[in-house]
Amino acid sequence: MLGEIIIGIISAAVPLSITFVLVGLGEMFNQRAGVYNLGAEGIMMVGAFIGFYVEYTMQSGPGSSTLGMLAAIGVGAFMGGIMALVCVTFKAEQGIAGIALYMLGWGVAGMLFRVYIGGTTTIVGLQAVNVPLLADIPVLGPIFFSQNAMVYVTLFLVPLAWYMLNKTVWGLKAKAVGTAPMAADTMGVKVDRTRIQCVVLAGAMAGLAGAYLSICQTHMYADNITAGRGFIAVALVYFGKWKPSGVLFGALLFSLAHSFQRSIQVYGIDFPYEVAVVFPYLLVIVVLAFSGRSNIMAPAALGKPYYRELRD
Amino acid sequence: MGNSRRRLQELTFNVGLTALSLLLALVIGAVLFLIAGANPIKAYGVMFTAPLEDIFGITEIFVRAAPLLLVALGISISFRSGILNIGGEGQILVGAIFGLCIALYAPPMHWSIMMPLIFAASFAGGALWGGIAGWMKAYLNVNEILSTVMLNYVAIQIYSYLIRGPMMDKQEIVYGTGASQTARIAREYWLAKLIPGARMHSGMIIAVVLAVIVFFFLWKTIYGYRMRAVGAEIRASRYAGVNTRWYLLLAMLLAGGFAGLAGAVEVLGVHHRGLESISAGYGFSGIVVALFGGLHPLGAIPASIIFGLLIVGADMMQRAVHVPAYIILAIQGLIILAIVSSNVFITKKGMRAKMVKFLGKATGRK
Amino acid sequence: MFCNGQMQIEHIELKNITKRFPGVLACDNINLALKQGEILALLGENGAGKTTLMNILYGLYQPDEGEVIVNGRQTAIDSPQKAGALGIGMVHQHFMLVPNLTVRENVALCMFNDRTFHCDIAYVTETINRICTDHRIKIDPDAYIYELSVGEQQRVELIKALSLGANLLILDEPTAVLTPQETDKLILLLQEMAASGCSIIFISHKLNEVKAVSHHVAVLRGGKLVYNGSTDDHTTNELASLMAGRDINLPVAKEKEPSDKIILDIQNVTAIGDRGTQALNGLSLALRKGEIMGIAGVSGNGQSELAEVINGIRKVQSGRILFDGEDITNRTPQQIIDRRMGYIPADRLHEGTVAGFSVKENMILKDYARPPLAQATFLKDRAICRYANDLVAKFAIKTPSIDTTCASLSGGNIQKVIVAREMNRRPKVLVAVYPTRGLDMGAAEFVHSELLAARDKDETVLLISEELEELINLSDRIAVIYEGKILKIIPAKQAQKSALGLLMAGVQSHG
C-alpha cells in the first residue's frame, strides 16, 4: 500500500514537473543572456488559452492538440518579442516590464476566455499513453512509461538545452552577452540581437508550457490556470544555478512536494485545503531564502541593459 | 533664471512623454478591442466620458482612487528605496484581515478610539506582510519581486480560508446561504459618506493628506533622505554610514503598511465587511499609478484619479459594449510597458537628445 | 615573418576626425598616420581623447566628421567586425574577455562570431598553438578566464587579436595593471612583433615606457592633436609639458619631523574578499599622527579591502583596529564616521557619491543628520544650500548650480565634491584610495595639494595608489602591500621605483 502511494506520488509528479521544465529552460536561456523575464506567467496564460482555444474550435479533432501547442508557441514568441523590444531595444527596467507583461497576458487571456468561451468546457487534449511492454515494468513503468507524449519530448529537451548552451557558438554567445556584454560586443557578437533571440525563444517555451497546462495536464482552461507557475519557474532557475540539469532537478523536487500535498488530500488525511495549497508557495519562499546568498553563479550582467556608445 | 527655465522644459518634456506613452498604449489597446469584437472608439468613448456624466460616476472615481492612491504611495516609497514591491495585493488582504479582527472582535468602543485602532491594525498587518519580503531582501538577498508575488498567493489563500472558515458570518451558516464573507461591521465605525446616496467616503481625504505627509517624509526628513539614498546608490549610502539593511526593511514595512491602509479603507468605506476579492487588483493598478505619477507622492494624486476614472469607465464600458473589464488589466500592462520604454529617453541624455532632435524635425521647429 | 592575416595594413590614416559626446568635444579635427612595422605612442592625459579616437579606429564609435583611409582607400569602419576584417585588433584597458568561458571559447567566439551553431574548434586550437609558439606565449587553452592572473589575461587578449589576423594592434594603457617587471616583458614582446611586420599603437601616459618602446609619438590634449613626430626629438620632460599644456609641477611633500603618536593602529587583520578569497592576510600597519602613509601594490592585493575594513564597510575576521586609542574593529560605518574618519573611495561615481543626487545632497552625505543642516529629524533646506554653496566656492567646483545632479559633472569635479565634503569634516585620518585615477593633471594637482594641506594641519592620510610617482612625491613612508600583507615599509625619500616594483611583485630582497 505505502509503496503504491509512493509510486503514485512520483508518477504524478513527473507530468506536473513538465510545465516548470519547459518554462524554466526558456527562462534559463534569457537569464543566461542577461534578461530576466517575469512576464513568463502572463505568456503562459495566453499560451494556455490559445492552445485550448485552437483545440476547442477543432473539436479535439486529429492533430488539434499539436496545432494548439504550435499556436501557443507562436503567440508566446510574439509576447517574448514584446518583452525583448521593451527591455533590450528600449533598455527598460526588466522587473517592472516583466510585471507589466504579466498583467497584459493575464488581462488578454481573461478577456478572450470570457468573450469566446465563457464557462467551464473540457477538451480531450493529449492523454497519457502506455508504452507497450515498458509500461508494465514495476516501479519504473508507471513513472516513466505511461505518460503523455509531451513528457518525453520535454525530457529530451533538457540534454538538448545543455548541448545548445555549452557546445554551440550560439550558446557561447548567450553566455557571453549575459556575463560580459561589452567584451562580447568587441568580439563581434551582436549583443542585443543575441539577447532578443533568447528572450523570444523563452517566450515560445513559456507559451508551450501554458499550452501543456491546458492541453496535456488539465484538459480545460480556467481563470488564473497558471497559478504562479511562471514565477515559480523563475525561482527554480535561481535554484538550479542557471543549468538545465539544475532546472530539471528543481522542477522534479518541487513537483514531488506538490504531488505529495495532493495525495494528502486524495487519501483523505484531515488537513485544511488552503494550507495544503499554500505549501508550494511557502516552499518557493524557503528555497529563495537559501539560494539568495549564493548568487555568485548568476550571470554578471543579469538585469542590466547594454549601451555601447551612450555615456550616462 | 536659466536654471529654472531648463527645469520647466525638463518637466514639460517628461509630462509630455508620459502622456505620449499613455496614448500609444491606448492605441495598441484598441487592437485588443477589435480582437474582442468591439468598436474601440465607442469603447474608449464610454470609458472616458460615461463616468463623468453624472454625480454617481464622478463620486465612484474617488471611491476607486482612494485605495489606488494609498497603494501607490507605498509603491513610490519602496521603488524610491530600490525595492520593486509587487506584493500590494497580499498586503491589502492581510491589512484587511487585521483591521477586520479589531472591528469585529474588539469590545465596542467609541468610534474615535476604535477607528484609529482599526487603521493601525491594518497598517501593522500590511507592514508585516511587506516586512517579510523586506527582511528577506535585506538580510538574505532574496529577489523581492519573486518573494512578494509568492506572498500574494499565500495571502489570498489565508484570506479566503478565514472568510470561509473561522471568520465567516455566523448568519450565513444559520441561514445556510454560505456566502463566504464576514459579518458586517457596526455602523458607527464606517467611514463617513461625503455625499448622500453615493458611495464616496472620506477615504480619499485621508489618502491625500497622507500623500502630502509622504512627500515631506521623503524630501524633508533625514529618514527620507536615507531611504532615497539607499534606493539611488546602495553602496554610496553604506559608505555614508546608513544602515542600508534596516532602511530596505523600513521601506517595505511602510509600503506594506500603506497597502494595508488601502485594505482598511475598502473595508470601512465600501464593503463594511470582508468578502472575496476585496483587493480588486488595486495591488497591481497601484504600481501603474505610482509609475504614472513619476514615483512622486504628489504626482500620484492626479494619477490615482485618472486611473480611478479608467477603472470606473471600464465597468461601464463592459455593460455598454460587452467587452469584459478584464481588458483594463491588459491596457494597464500596456501603459506600464510604454512608460518604462519611454524612460530611456529621460534617463539617458544621448537618447533624449536624439528624441528632441527628432521631435524638433517632426514639428518643424528648432 | 608576417603576422598572419587576410589583409596587410601597409598604411593607415585618420583624417580630420571629430567626435562629440553630449557636452564634450572628445576629438577635435585629428589627423594621424601610421606605416607598417611602426610603433606609435599615443600620449595624453586622461580625458584627452585617446581612447575615444582608438574606439573610432576600432569601429566601436562612429566619428561625427572625418574619415579613415586604409592603404590609400577611404574605408568606413562601422563595427568591430569590420575593423577585424581589415586587420585591426584592439586590447582594451579593461580586458574584453568573458570570464566564465575558457581561453579557447573566447578565441572561438572572436573567430566564429558569424556562426550560429557549429564551429571548427580544432582549427581554433591550432591557431592558438601557432600564435603561442610564434611569440613564445605560455597559456592553457582550457583554463577559464577568471582563473588567470591579470598578466595572463593580457596575453589572452593578444592571442585574441592575433587570431583574427590583426597586423595593426591597438593597446590601450596596457601597462596600467602590470608590475614594472611584467611591463618590461611586454615591451620586449611588442618590439619583436613590430620587427616581424605588425604595426602597433600604444596608448599611455607613462612617459618612460613611451620613450622605451615607440618610434613615433602623437600627443593629444583636450581632444586636439598638439604634437606628432619622432619620439627621439623630445625629452621626457618636454613630452610631459606638451601633454599638460603648461609646465606642471605636482606638489611634493616637504620634510617634516615625525610625531610619536600612533593615530591608527591596524593589528594582524584578516578579511575575506568579494570572491570569497582571503583578501587581507594578517595585515599590520601603524600610522603616526600627521604623516602621509603611501600604500603601493599591484591592484587586487587587498588595497580596497584594507580601506573597507578601516571604514567598517567590510567585516574583520580576526585582528583589531585601534583609532586614536579606541577599538573600532567591526564598528558600523556610522560609528567610525562619527569618530572623524575620512574616506575617499576608489569608485567615485557609485560609492563616493550618489550619482542621481544633486551636488547639494551629495555635499551633506555624511553630515545631513547634524545641526545646523538638520534639526531633530527635519532637513533645514536653507542651511543646506548655504553650506553647499560655501563648499562649491571654497573648492572651486565647476557646476551649473548646487541642484545639478552629480552624475552630470566631470570626473574631476565629482572628485572635488568628495574631497570638499571629506576635508571640510576635518578628519583625524583620511583614507584616500586611487584619489587621482582618471583625473587630468589640473585636478590631480588640486587633490595632491589638498592632501598635503591636511598633513600640514597634522591630519593623517593613508594614500592608496597605483602611481609610484604620486606615492614617492607625497608620502612620508611607503608600505608595499602584497597578497593581503604589508611586505615592507620604506621611508619615501629612500624609495626607488625599481625596488618598489620588485616588492610589488612579491620579491623580497634579503639584506
SSE map:
The complex is a heterotrimer of chains A (312), B (366) and C (511).
Chain A: H1 2-32, H2 40-57, H3 64-89, H4 94-116, H5 140-144, H6 149-167, H7 169-179, H8 181-186, H9 191-218, H10 229-239, H11 244-266, H12 273-291
Chain B: H1 2-35, H2 40-49, H3 55-80, H4 88-105, H5 111-140, H6 144-164, H7 170-175, H8 203-220, H9 222-232, H10 234-239, H11 244-271, H12 282-292, H13 297-321, H14 326-347, H15 349-363
Chain C: E1 11-21, E2 24-35, E3 39-44, H1 50-57, E4 65-70, E5 73-75, H2 80-86, E6 88-91, H3 103-111, H4 121-135, H5 150-163, E7 168-172, H6 180-195, E8 199-204, H7 207-213, E9 216-221, E10 224-230, H8 236-244, E11 262-272, E12 278-288, E13 292-296, H9 303-310, E14 318-323, E15 326-327, H10 333-338, E16 341-344, H11 348-352, H12 359-363, E17 374-375, E18 378-379, H13 381-394, H14 411-424, E19 429-433, H15 441-456, E20 460-464, H16 468-474, E21 477-482, E22 485-491, H17 497-504
Parallel strand pairs in C: 3-8, 3-9, 6-7, 7-8, 13-20, 13-21, 16-19, 19-20
Antiparallel strand pairs in C: 1-2, 1-4, 4-5, 9-10, 11-12, 11-14, 14-15, 17-18, 21-22
What's the gyration radius of chain C in Å? 25 Å
**CATH topology (fold) name of the largest domain in chain C:** Rossmann fold
- Globally, the shape of chain A reads globular
Named CATH architecture of the largest domain in chain C: 3-Layer(aba) Sandwich
Structural class of chain A: mainly alpha
Number of domains of chain C: 3
Placed side by side, the strands forming the largest sheet of chain C appear as 6-7-8-3-9-10
Q: In percent, how helical is the residue content of chain A?
A: over 70%
Mean pLDDT of chain C: 86
How many domains comprise the coordinates of chain A?
Answer: 1
Number of helices of chain A: 12
- The backbone outline of chain C, from C-alpha atoms, is globular
Please report the two chains with the greatest interface, counting residues with C-beta closer than 8 angstroms to the partner's C-beta.
Answer: A-B, 55 and 51 residues
- Termini Cα gap of chain A: 66 Å
Largest sheet of chain A: none
